[in-house]
Design a protein that fits this description.
CATH superfamily of the largest domain: Translation initiation factor eif-2b, domain 2
Distance between the termini: 29 Å
CATH architecture of the largest domain: 3-Layer(aba) Sandwich
CATH topology of the largest domain: Rossmann fold
Radius of gyration: 20 Å
Bound molecules: 5-S-methyl-1-O-phosphono-5-thio-D-ribulose
Largest sheet: 7 strands, mixed
Strand content: 15-25%
Number of strands: 14
Strand order of the largest sheet: 6-5-4-7-10-13-14
Shape: globular
CATH class of the largest domain: Alpha Beta
Number of domains: 2
Helix content: 25-40%
Number of helices: 11
């Protein structure tokens, strides 16, 4: 988070310590810290969006692996590796779309293999060190994204964003919001339209909270107001995050993002995706192969307490959609700007 009252996610203490994270379901009304002591609580925190946003989910998963194996009773290294693998498989079932989850689990699994021969106590400590490295690298990468992305922002710009791709969605600073924090820090005058992001209101609850705290001029709009706001000439650029970017540049992000991209194209407004390379999945050829999470109907019919639809009504609730690469002016990564957004450019920048 920028102007952090608390880190979005961190580890406190040694191997016997715990993972602390902001309980995001309570924001903006209450800022509470959840202490996570075991892998089941971490799985649940990811599933119910206590910790959310692709990079933050990756960090949470890395800590989840530590929580899952730190008290492993394995007495030989093969049995310990099997515990690591079982914990990774379990955490991988929490949410399907953000590839950072699988990226972090693979990284932990691979790291465990490199620790072979050191003894189980050292392997446990080595996994904690690796999870902390995942978190610290994410912090550094987000600041880099801000630096690179802010070059695209001009003084006086009206910007739009969808969902929350801020410090709350990462270890710190954010992806799309890092661009705004950085532009603001450089003294550029910006105004941000934050789409509320039905059904769970990450834009209304989290993005406006973060931008307000950073002293950035932010205006909340309902999702269905975006076209009118663009038509009125109030938006010069759109910046969003991503949960998974396919090899051809198609980008999955929070449901509603695709509609914003189509609207942006119609209004000749450049639409940028901001994401670390860990969000780019070269194994997934196109957006058609990205698994889209479906969320429970209650999040649509009674998301925040009172019912807003009749009992028994059918609900369909995909949590993400895919914006085809042709709608994306550029993808800001820590390795530079991918533009045009083609398979060749994606591969070139990611492997550079
Ligand atoms: O369901 P959520 O809140 O985890 O969805 C989050 C998003 O869609 C973000 O835009 C994305 O993860 C990028 S976060 C830097």
């Amino acid at each position: 988070m920028s102007n952090a009252a608390a880190p979005t996610i961190t580890w406190v203490g040694g191997l016997d310590g715990c993972c602390e994270l902001i309980e995001q379901t309570l924001l903006p009304n209450r800022l509470e810290i959840l202490e996570v002591e075991d892998q089941e609580t971490m799985w649940d925190a990811i599933k119910r969006l206590a910790v959310r946003g692709a990079p933050a989910i990756g960090v949470a998963a890395a800590f989840g692996v530590v929580l899952g194996v730190r008290r492993s009773a394995a007495t030989d290294e093969d049995a310990f590796q099997a515990d690591v693998a079982a914990t990774c498989d379990y955490l991988a079932t929490s949410r399907p779309t953000a590839v950072n989850l699988f990226w972090a689990l693979d990284r932990m699994r691979t790291h465990a293999v490199t620790l072979r021969g050191q003894g189980i106590v050292a392997m446990k400590q080595g996994l904690l060190d690796e999870a902390i490295a995942v978190m610290e690298q994410d912090r550094a990468i987000c600041h880099k994204l801000g630096e690179i992305g802010s070059l695209l922002v001009q003084d006086g710009d009206g910007l739009m964003t969808h969902c929350n791709a801020g410090g709350l969605a990462t270890a710190e600073y954010g992806t799309a919001l890092a661009v705004m924090f950085e532009a603001h820090a450089q003294g550029k005058s910006i105004t941000v339209f934050a789409n509320e992001t039905r059904p769970l209101l990450q834009g209304a609850r989290l993005t406006t909270w973060e931008l307000q705290r950073a002293g950035i001029d932010v205006t909340l709009i309902c999702d269905n107001m975006a076209a009118q706001v663009m038509r009125e000439g109030k938006v010069q650029r759109v910046f969003v995050g991503a949960d998974r970017i396919a090899r051809n540049g198609d980008a999955a992000n929070k449901i509603g993002t695709y509609a914003i991209a189509v609207l942006a194209k119609e209004h000749r407004i450049p639409f940028y995706v901001v994401a670390p390379c860990s969000t780019i999945d070269l194994e997934t050829p196109s957006g058609d192969e990205i698994p889209i999470e479906e969320r429970p109907p209650e999040e649509v019919t009674e998301g925040f307490g009172s019912r807003t639809a009749p009992e028994g009504v059918k609900v369909y609730s995909p949590a993400f959609d895919v914006t085809p690469a042709r709608f994306i002016a550029g993808v800001v990564t820590e390795r530079g700007l991918i533009t045009p957004v083609t398979e060749d450019e994606v591969v070139r920048v990611v492997t550079s």
